[in-house]
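Could you help me review a protein record that somebody else here produced? Do not assume that whoever made the record got everything right. The record follows directly below this note.
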Amino acid sequence: MQEFELSEIIAVLTGLSGFLGAIWINRIRLKDKAKYDHELEDVKSKLARQSAEHLSLLNRISIVHKSQFEKEFSSIQEIWELYDLAYVATRSVLIYESEEAIEFPHQSTELENNIKNCASAVNTLSENLGVVLHL
């Protein structure tokens, strides 16, 4: 009977130690999980903060670049318009001086007439200055 009682005691102790071991392992696992969950939340919050900072920086940089692009583009537009006006003016002056009737695309007849009037006035002024300077 002692052998039977001893084997029962061993079986109860084995079962009890297994049960207590499972509880102990579960507590350790929950403690580690809580620790790693806390660390994960810290990492997530750091990443969210860095992401917000980078997004803010990117927005500021894009606004600066957009304004620089708009300034440069408007400057290029103005230069192109001035170039177009200068081209039309020089062609109109050449046409006026050579008295050839040549049609050029993209010319405004009103602008051409104004330029012809200006060229005429400049020619008259230069002739008058030439007469005055020769005296």
